[in-house]
């Protein structure tokens, strides 16, 4: 199941121009991603709430706010040992950042239970953790239940229980865990790079707008200056044409000299 989901994801993502993944991207197994997810919970969706805006929508022209929502969930079981989220079973909180985005969709239905990979964003909102750009929400199927129950450091999760009993399988998975942590480092670097890049784009856009304003302003000033300088030059030309024999030691029309020219010309005309 894991590979087919990953394959569909790859096809979906590669078909979509807006979702360029790093060229060395490879799908990862659920087990590996589970090791990398910050928070893993099994929870029931109690209600859905519309979100008017999402910072996770990177396409500025996608204004359809019906597409974004948050889910109010009740924690049935905290899946991982030492998970960042230290709240007891039965706690309720909102998972935001759900909905239909350019490259992916995170959707859940009311009254259903799911396994969630979650993380906290910089503002302490809890959002899905799409480790390796893959799906972080798993429906409550026997298959997913088996998978999560059998993973090293994940509990055999039913509502309200948190049983951690040792099984020999877990030693094997400890190796897997170490292997995952190498990927983790690379992955976090990649995520940071993406974050840095989008930040850079924002800064550049701002600088660009600033520059455009500056150029606009300069053009305006230039036009204004041209208008102001044109008039005296024209009147000088007209005068010059009507009085061709008028002696002019300096025909330069730079601004510093204009006042003197103006002064001189009327005088000579009066004569
Ligand atoms: C979840 O968000 C909704 C809408 O913003 C709010 O009414 C509700 O109280 C929140 N629930 C919790 C448990 O914070
Ligand atoms: C969820 O369950 C509640 C209470 O049982 C019910 O009122 C509601 O209609 C259900 N929602 C959906 C979408 O089935
Ligand atoms: C965090 O909050 C700040 C200020 O409200 C906002 O500008 C920023 O976009 C938020 N970031 C996220 C990831 O929600
Ligand atoms: C999980 O619990 C079920 C039912 O209690 C049990 O049959 C199964 O063996 C348990 N699995 C593991 C890995 O402990
Ligand atoms: C991202 O930016 C931070 C601070 O600006 C910097 O310390 C870090 O090295 C950058 N990371 C990458 C992967 O470029």
From TrEMBL:
Signal peptide (residue range): 1-18
Protein's name according to its UniProt entry: Coiled-coil domain-containing 3b
Region (Disordered) residue spans: 226-271
Basic residues composition-biased segments: 260-271
Organism of this sequence: Danio rerio
Keyword Signal on entry: yes
Database matches in InterPro entries: CCDC3 (IPR040311)
Annotated keywords: Signal
Endoplasmic reticulum is among the record's keywords: no
